[in-house]
Structures are given as C-alpha cells and as structure tokens.
Amino acid sequence: MAAARSPLPPVSLPDLLFSGSPSRPRVWWRLPAPKCPRRPSTGIRTSAFYTEGAPAAVAPRKERAEPEADEIALLNERIRREHGRREAARAATPPMDAAEAEEYISMVKEQQQRGLQKLRGGDGEGKGIGGLGYRVDPYVLRPGDYVVHKKVGIGKFAAIKYDVPKDSSSGPIEYVFIEYADGMAKLPVKQASRVLYRYNLPNETKKPRALSKLNDPSTWERRRIKGKIAVQKMVVDLMELYLHRLKQKRPPYPENPAVAEFAAQFPYEPTPDQKQAFIDVEKDLTERETPMDRLICGDVGFGKTEVALRAIYCVVSAGKQAMVLAPTIVLAKQHFDVISERFSGYPHIKVGLLSRFQTKSQKEEYLSMIKKGRLDIIVGTHALLGNRVVYSNLGLLVVDEEQRFGVKQKEKIASFKTSVDVLTLSATPIPRTLYLALTGFRDARMEKAENCHGLEEVKEFLEQSFPNIAIAIAHGKQYSKQLEETMENFALGEIKILICTNIVESGLDIQNANTIIIQDVHQFGLAQLYQLRGRVGRADKEAFAYLFYPDKSLLSDQALERLAAVEEYGELGQGFHLAERDMGIRGFGNIFGEQQTGDIGNVGIDLFFEMLFESLSEVEEHRLASIPYKKVQLDIDITPHLPSEYINYLENPLKIINEAEKAAEKDMWSLMQFTDNLRRQYGKEPRSMEVLLKKLYTRRMAADLGISNIYASGKVVVMTTNMSKKVFKLMKESMASDIHRNCLTFSGSEIKAELLLELPREQLLNWIFQCLAELYAALPALVKY
C-alpha cells in the first residue's frame, strides 16, 4: 500500500486521523516529519503512523527555544500571582453547599460587626480606637499635614484663612487652603469638615508618593478604585480564611465531671469576667465541632493561666496532648512549674519542658516521648514549632503573648488553627476589637533583639554601692541551667537585685519583687513598658516603677506619647485600654502586612478604613456562584483546523485534545497545568491550536464567572449571567482596560458590549477572551459560594 501524498491540506483533527470508525480505523496515515522539531524529553514513547509494512522513520528531535509570552501565558501568570495562595487553600477545603456558606457567612458577619461597633465607637461621631474617624476636623490640622479629598485626592494642608466668596455680599468666611501638585484649592470650613479625610493618624509622618493634581482627577479616581478593590480582596481573603477554619471538624470533647473537681483546686474566687471565660472556653470545647480559636485578654495577675489550665485538663483527660507555647525560656519555665504543681495530684498526666537550652540527648528523649504520646502536656518556646517535633495526638495549643513571636513562628502557629483548638493569652495585645472585626489578622509589629550590652558594668557599679547585697544578671543568651538557677534564687529572695534584659517582660510572677527600674524607657514599646511595670506589685506589698530616659527634648513625639500613656493608665486592669492607645500612637500601618500597608498609602488611613467598613458591611452582597463548565454555551462558529505538520508532531493528537477538554472541565488550574505541559513538551502551538485553547479558556472563565451563554448579534456581544448588578459593578471597576470597561453594560441578567464594528469570528473570540480575562482578575475580590 502506498503512503499518503505529502503535503496534506489543513483539516480538522478527527477527519484527519481516521477514515474509518475511531474504534477500528481501516487506514492509518503516515504523515510528513515535522518542520519544527521538539525538545527531547525523558519517558515519552516514540511512535510512527504507518501503513501495512515497515514503520516509517521519525525525524530527530532538537532543542527548542522557550515560547514567547502570549495572551494565554500572560493570563496564566496573572492567575498564579493573584489567585495562587487562596486557591491552594480552597483546594484543601471540602466544598461548601449554599446553605453551609450562608450559615458560616452569618457567623463571620456577626463577629465582624461586634468589632466594627467598637472600632467606630459609640459616641455617634464615628470615633473609636486611636481617635479613628472618617472625617477630619480642619481646626486640628497643622500646616504640612496631608489630607485626602474623596473626589480630588491627596493634598497638603496650608492654612485656614478668611476670604470673600464669589458672588456673595455676606462678607468673608473661613476657608481651608489645600496645596495640590498643580495649584492651591480652597474649601469653606463647613464643607471641608464633611469631605476631607486624614492621610495619617496623629503623630504619623509618612509622606505620600506624590500630591494629586486638580486638573487630573481621573488619575486619583483610578487610584481610589484600586484601593477599594484591594480592600475588597483583603476582606474576602479573610472571610474565606475564616470559612476554612469553620469548615474544619473535630468531635466535641465529652463533658467530664472531673473538670469541676480540678477547678475546685483553684484557691481564689474567680472574677465575673474570669467566670465567663471559663464558661466560653468550656462551651468551645464541649459543644462545638469547630476547633476553638479564642483570645483571652486579661491584665497581669488577673488569672488568664487558670483559664488555660482548665482547658488543658479537659483536653488531656480525653486522651489528647496539649502544647503550651511561650516567647521566652524564663516564662516557659514558669508555666512548666505552675502546670507541674497543679497536675501533681494526677500522676498519670505527664508534663515536660522542651527548650533550645537542653542537651542533645535530653531533646531526643523528649521528642521520642512526644511522638509516642508519653508526654501529655508539652511546655516550651518556639522549639516546639520545629519540624522535628511530631505530636502523637495534639488537641490543644495554648499561646502566651503571641505578638512577641517572629513572623515565621506566627505563621506556624496559624497553621495549627485549622486542625487543633487554640487558646491565645495576652495582657496587652494589639487592639483585639480589630481582631474581632478582621478575623485572621495578626500583629506585624517588629520586636527588637535583646541587648545584653552594659549589664556587667551595671553589676560592678551596684556591687560597689551595695557590697553586702546579692546581685545577679539574667538574659536570654545565658545557659539554661544558669538562667533557671538565677531566676529561682531571685524568686526565693536569695538574690535581692536582678539586672536583666526584657526577658522578664511577659508573665513572670515574682511575688516579693516590689521595685523595678527601667533604663532608656524611650526604646521600649508601650505594651512592653506596661508588661515590665506589671512584674512588680503582684502581692500585698506597695510597688514602685521608676522609668528613666534622656533629655525630653531629645525624645520623639511618639516616645513622649508613650510615656504619657504609661502614666495615664496606672491602674491594673487597664492593659486593653493602653493597647488601644498604642494603636493610636503607632498607627494602623504596623498592624497590616506589607501589601495592605501599601494600599493604605494609596488612599490614606481614614479613607482606607471607610472602604474597609463598607466592604465588611456588604461582604455578603459580593458573592458569585460559578456554574458547571458543560453548561456554558459559546455560540461562535469557529472550528480550528490543525496543520498536518503539527498533528504529526504530537504523540497522540486525539488523546491530547480529550485531555485538554477534561482539564478545562475540571478547573482553571488543571487547564493551566495542561497548557504548560503541552508547551513544555511540544513548544509553542500553532495559531489554530491557540484558537482551540482560547475556546477552552473562554468557557472555563465563563463558568467561574457565572456566565452561561455567550453569543454575538451583529456588533453586540451578549453574555447571560447569574451575577448581581453590584458584583458586575465591582468587576467592571477592577478592569485595567478602558477599551473593554467603557463598552460594557449590565441589564437584567445580561452583560452587553457594543463594538465599533462587527468582527470576524477569530477576532471576536480574541475580544471575548480578553474581556473575560479582565473580569476574571476581580475574582479574588468576590466570595465564591
């Protein structure tokens, strides 16, 4: 039999492969060798189409250059950049049905609203934490302060002066004069108080990248919309993170009468708030199937540890392990001592302490005991978060002063929150009303490294001054045994004066310490100062705290405010109020990550939070329901015909096309992976194959966007969708292309685009692909349930 003549004309793929039925072809065609050789790859089967007789030769394969970036490659890159982390988390989460999503969103919204009420304040003027308000009082502005006008943009306050209004005979009135990049603007004071926002919080000195232009409001408008979309994405990200947490399940712990016996050993009368904390934590553990993620915010000496002890007993008595995590070895040792004493009457419950100061053999023994479940309660520092620590049956994580851990440790702590119950203890946290409003945010404050310089010199001076008094040094760089002995002797009163770093900051309970002297107080944060001051006065003795600083004239405004705040909040029980004041001094920028801080810089703090509150209040209105891929109709009569050279070039063309369709049907990530593999193995596809891929991408994007039908009627493109008008508006605002954004309208259940002229079919497909890619960029800003 003769081989088919070459070259063959371009034909559609099924017609090319078979002249008989697909299952039993009567003739296999031998196609010409490819003109564009591909890169050799390991494990790829070499084959040849043949007629009856000897197999035909296959052309050698050569290296190919990397494919140039095209619309599909650019889309894949953008999706990975903007959707990657969220989609990875969603992939690990079982899917929710509409009823579940509704229930969880209601729970999230209720929690957020409690925080929002605190943040906004109850004085009717929108004033809350740190003086947070949506508007600025012009009379408190100082020359050079940056302000934001919602319609014009960022300017610099110059002065308040009297001026005569145009076309007025009423005499001069007060105007606010604002400097912009291209001129000076003035606003009546009454109007300014309604439309101006602060760019910074009081005492912040951050400068914007540039002042806005009066004659170019469109640039500011794009900047404002970009900030709005960024805020919406952040809110949805937090929403989905919390939904992911709520979706995790674990059996409720059994109600154990022995817990009451354990609680009866507490030697003090609980405060009302402490009693409520006991009740809330017990309900979290025994009545809910969702892992607990609760913050206990109590001041120094107010009994947070007792709340944790009861939770530990509940979990351990059910056969699970509990981990207690502290930021310093000194505090970890104190927790270990307290827990060991409290559980001394329960010999079957084993307590262990793991730290970086232990010998290698000690560590190996403890690691083995933890893995085999022979330790029930494990206390330690960040060493507990190492990869070598494998828990047999971890049920509870107790974190003391989470804000003092580093970024990597915080991320590790966060990873536990989806699988085990977590109880966080703090006396002076970042304002947790914000935590309630934005579940998932964590303190991003930078902690200063411990400074041991000069301790020996201080000791020598004090030994000369008090020759008969026992004096010692304590810092985190000492050996474990030495540090433990020093702290124990100080607690027992054998050491009278302790010279130390801020290693004693968190949670230490030294009953007979009644005086603390803090040097260079301006170098400490407000929460640190409050914690340090709380190390004394924990018994019935009158306590004294002396704070030393250099010449006040050399201190920054923020340092002066911190000193004033420490003086103002002098009573126990005011740690939470002081944390709120701390936010006003430090500014919100330190609370957020790098990306959100940049978004704040785009529009200023007040406008950012107005957008944030609006987005939180309306989050359920920004929901988008996808549809199955197979229900998407793309009514464009275009059938790509692959070149015979490319078909011969592929190993199994029909199989490859079927795999492409299956990948598109599964999800966008599968389609992207398929495309990457295809190009990696065979190089950049010809134009006809690109058209086929674009059809698959277009249907996949449409399915994810809730678009069920796409067709063209003359110059008008119509897309039938289930999205709401509000979702469409947000998507349209987020589009980077003016060409696509300006021609889109929404009516009923249809998105319409009127083009300048009727396009040929392939150009029409390209336009629809580009338009959907623009809309797809807004997906991270939408709740997809």
Description:
This protein is an alpha/beta fold and 785 residues long. It has 4 domains: 138-215, Thrombin, subunit H; 248-437, P-loop containing nucleotide triphosphate hydrolases (Rossmann fold, 3-Layer(aba) Sandwich), CATH 3.40.50.300; 453-614, P-loop containing nucleotide triphosphate hydrolases (Rossmann fold), CATH 3.40.50.300; 624-781, Transcription-repair-coupling factor, D7 domain (Aspartate Aminotransferase, domain 1), CATH 3.90.1150. Helices cover 42% and strands 13% of the residues. The protein contains 26 helices and 20 strands. The strands form 5 sheets. A 6-stranded parallel beta sheet has the order 6-11-10-7-9-8, with helices on both faces. A 5-stranded antiparallel beta sheet has the order 4-3-2-1-5. The protein is globular, with a radius of gyration of 33 Å. It starts with 12 loop residues before the first helix and ends in a 9-residue tail after the last helix. Mean pLDDT is 76; it is low at 1-68, 122-132, 430-444, 446-450 and 583-596.
